[in-house]
Amino acid sequence: MASRLYTWGLWAARRRGRVIAVWLLLLAVFGGLGITLRGKVTTQFTVPGIESQRAQDLLEEKFPEAAGGTARVVFAAPEGDRLTAPEAEAALGVSLKKAARISGVVRVTDPAKSRTLSPDQRIGYADVQFEDEAADVPQSSKDALSEAMAEARHAGLEVEFGGSAMQRKTEVGGPAEIVGVVVAFAVLAFALSSLVAAGLPLLTALVGVAIGVLGVQFISRFVEMTNTATVLALMIGLAVGIDYALFIISRHREQLADPEQDVEDSIARAVAKAGGAVVFAGATVIIALAALAVTGIPFLTVMGLAAAATVLLAVLIAINLAPAVLALFGERLRPRPRRTKDRSAKVSQEPGARPQESGRTRGSWGLVWARAVTRKLLLVLVSGVIGLLALAVPARDLRLGLPSFASQPADSTQHKSYDLLTEGFGAGFNATLTAVVDTDGIPAAERTATVTGLRETLAADPGVAAVSPPVSNSDATLTVVAVVPKTGPDAPATTDLVHRLRENAPGVAKAGGTLYIAGLTAAGIDVSNKLSDALPLFVAVIVILALILLTIAFRSLLVPVKAALGFLLSIAASLGATVWVFQQGHLNGLLDIPSAGPVTSFLPVLLIGVLFGLAMDYEVFLVSRMREHHEHTGDAAGAVVQGVAGSGRVVSAAALIMAAVFGGFVFNDDPIIKSIGFALAFGVLVDAFVVRMTLVPAVMALLGRRAWGLPRRLDGIIPDVDIEGAKLPPRTAAGDATETGLERAAAAH
Prior knowledge:
The chain is built from 27 helices and eleven strands. Strand 8 (471-472) and strand 9 (478-485) form a beta hairpin. 55% of the residues are buried. Strands 6, 7, 8, 9 and 10 form a five-stranded antiparallel β-sheet that branches. Strands 2-3-1-4 form a four-stranded antiparallel β-sheet, sandwiched between helices. The chain has three domains: 2-37 and 171-328 and 364-401 and 525-726, no CATH class; 70-162, Alpha-Beta Plaits (2-Layer Sandwich); 433-518, Alpha-Beta Plaits (2-Layer Sandwich). It is elongated, with a radius of gyration of 30 Å. Helix 2 packs across helix 10 (195-219). It starts with a helix and ends with a helix. It is an alpha+beta fold.
């Protein structure tokens, strides 16, 4: 692999003009397609086959007027006043008549006539039913609805909006995300000791992210995807794009510290060595994200593939565009020589390593850290594992769900409508369930009695606050009954209620009908159950992939086992911290979390897939340096120390960059994006600094030579991919004919 990448890097450096032009052309093409032909994304997380989705499909088929999106307009009179006051009632009537004339609206309820007023008559609501599904209701209709309520506002009424048609759109690119990029630039400047060099990873990463995100927007024209998919593609693509370019640029500058090193040969050598690790690490991220398909959930599959595509672009840019840009800057990226304060300071280095630049030896802090870790092996291992397990303790109470309007920003109309409805009608009103009864198989004479008996049974449940009168379609083959729980949508008692209500299905089936318990709350419960069932299989696939890929990379059995165990510890700690913050309600003020609630149902699966790939990134870059030193010297103990010294700084910088990028999304208003950003930022920091930089060196030192052992049977089967560049041709000095390097690389194949 290294020899081929050497050839590839040298080719890109020599044809830098053409390479840069091709990437700019791709950016222009995908930019045009993504902007002019972008598709429509949805805020609905649908899963084919679950009960709530089957009910929704049935409503669309037999009762389309009840299947459309609903905007719930919530009115509140000032304290001490009532909505039934003449002035308020007149203003409501005018506003609701305007709402009924909006294009696409099929029905508008009147709070006074439908009795949707609170007991004190201060709070009420009107449901505006659209003919389109919630995700298809155009923004123009929502804006017109808001304008239609002007008369009610002029009368002094508070007007807020909820309902399935009023889901907030996810927006990115705000101040918090920009701060994350600024922090990433600061880390790059410190790690590379150059403002020019620090800007290059950002530049190449932004090109890749732009192509990836715009491409995803174009694909959304043909494939249904959630708005979270594009945000995840942006989040992951930006983070890995910066990191992968950093690994190659850092290696290039490290080599250029030798004044005799030729620039083009250094670029090719950086692509061969660091690029090999980039390709292998990127492949693990891509496979992990694509493995989301094993969950069998379409929206999660599309989300994973969209993010995987941006990671693939990041890899290609790192090994193709980055070398071309490095060649364009040429000698300007060569570090300035500095006087050494202590010329007698020496460090055991592999052949071809750069000389000292300053009074500090290369990776001096890494040497100190590695020696400290390996000096107290058992203490480090025990304290590290116990600390991670302590962080993981809250994960025992993990509860999954989809965020309700209570999780929206406190100043949003969705959150305000949620609070008003809770105040006026009780916590369970925001968790209203829909009992859908398919009566087509019930004799016509028995349908009314069957539905009436079911309504009485549902109302008798201790967890039910109210049950609405049944509403049937035109031919009376489908009936809908609204069921209001006593508890809110995020309460465990509501989940238990849904399961109890579904136990009435056999009784309806005996009469010849079919009962479904649906609605947004039931859909969230169903999606969570589906994902919980898929989680064990997904974890098994990820762990097996880790063992296979790392066995191929390092030709070792113990290294992959150690990596997989460390990955599981990182996942457990990250999930524990996420539960502690978002479910148990800690740090709500600091992170601007309006309400504690269940963890987003697909977050654990997503976290496992993404963090697996990123953890393997750090594992590959760190351990490949150890193996590189071990291949040259055969010194297992020295390989651990020199591996940390050689890669510790860049791995630490890469982790801080990723945490900064992910951390910027923690302050996004969308509760799903906020929780994903937090979980990934925390997971990256724990995995990089506790697992990879601390536990890995300790375990490798404990294993010694045994870490690099491989049974003879496997030795003959597993290919030698050479990601460390052991088979590269000798270094080409400045002024030498670089064509000889290319010929030697070709001969090494």
